[in-house]
């Protein structure tokens, strides 16, 4: 074979890390339901409200001052792409809920642009979810949900709401934006829970 015709060798990937019906991507596709919001950081706040003893809120500077962690995880989009070994930095939901008296079983993430998504509170706790502010060592770009997005990597990526501004804690479940349009209420990629009948 002549030089230049070998092609680039693809890394060996453990197929057990890719859920059924997914294909691997090395890019980071951008999919959004509407235009990308650009909230100035001096106007950004994050609030926890609802079925809690008291609402709490942080400004951007206060949020960044909270303990953060950096971790590597795989992400899986309902549109069938998976991206492995993504690196995020953010504040754990457990940190944000610490010290609060909570009677809720469900949460609704609400965002700039009017987007919402619902998640059982148990799926946000136990070090399973963060509010991410950085990706791959740099501040999260607006097209990927910056300045901050919810990250729930064990669920399909639409549950990792972009441009998050808060969480409403609830006693009852309340479908979010895509869930009202027929997406699955839970969204487990390993069970291929893409749509309401799955």
UniProtKB/TrEMBL annotation:
Q: Which residues form the Oxidoreductase molybdopterin-binding domain?
A: 34-178
Check the UniProt entry and state the signal peptide residues, or none.
Answer: none
InterPro entries (UniProt xref): OxRdtase_Mopterin-bd_dom (IPR000572), OxRdtase_Mopterin-bd_sf (IPR036374)
SUPFAM superfamilies attached to this UniProt entry? Oxidoreductase molybdopterin-binding domain
Q: What is this protein called?
A: Sulfite oxidase-like oxidoreductase
Give the species: Micromonospora azadirachtae
């Amino acid at each position: 074979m002549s030089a230049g015709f070998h092609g680039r060798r693809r890394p060996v990937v453990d197929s057990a890390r890719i859920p059924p019906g997914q294909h691997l991507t090395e890019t980071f596709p951008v999919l959004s339901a509407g235009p990308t919001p650009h909230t100035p950081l001096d106007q950004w706040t994050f609030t926890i409200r609802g079925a809690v003893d008291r609402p709490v809120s942080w400004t951007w500077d206060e949020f960044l001052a909270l303990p953060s962690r950096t971790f590597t995880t795989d992400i899986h989009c309902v549109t069938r792409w998976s991206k492995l070994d993504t690196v995020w930095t953010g504040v754990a939901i457990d940190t944000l809920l610490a010290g609060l008296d909570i009677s809720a079983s469900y949460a609704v993430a609400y965002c700039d642009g009017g987007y919402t998504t619902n998640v059982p509170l148990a799926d946000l706790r136990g070090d399973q979810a963060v509010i991410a502010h950085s990706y791959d060592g740099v501040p999260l770009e607006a097209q990927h949900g910056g300045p901050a997005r919810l990250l729930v990597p064990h669920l399909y990526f639409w549950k990792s709401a972009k441009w998050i501004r808060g969480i409403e804690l609830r006693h009852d479940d309340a479908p979010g934006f895509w869930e009202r349009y027929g997406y699955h209420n839970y969204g487990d990629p390993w069970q291929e829970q893409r749509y309401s009948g799955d």
